[in-house]
Amino acid sequence: MSPTDPGLTPSPDEQQAPMQEEMVDHPDVRALVAQARDELADGNDKQAARLLTDAAYHTHDPELERQVRELAAQGLERAGRFGKGRWEEIIRIADPHAARANV
User: Fold this and answer.
1) What is the tally of structural domains in the chain?
2) Could you tell me which of 85, 10, 93, 2 has the C-alpha nearest to residue 45?
3) Residue 12 lies inside a defined structural domain of this protein
């Protein structure tokens, strides 16, 4: 059964497909991290945070997750009172991935 057929409900396998696709590494996560590093160096913290958030969600590579957490920690140190939340969220996203890799 296809979810595009009218009146038909998707099978459990078809319902799982989007979730499984999200678990695949983003093809350019390394590029996202590198661009975020450059944006952070240029003082574009908001753009760096957006890029790191995308990278954190799309990778399961322990080395990339470590880099994401390190860059987010740098952003957190530089953030003002109201900007800390975005950096803490990036670290929160990357930490469970790292914990899973260390098990």
Assistant:
1) 1
2) 85
3) no
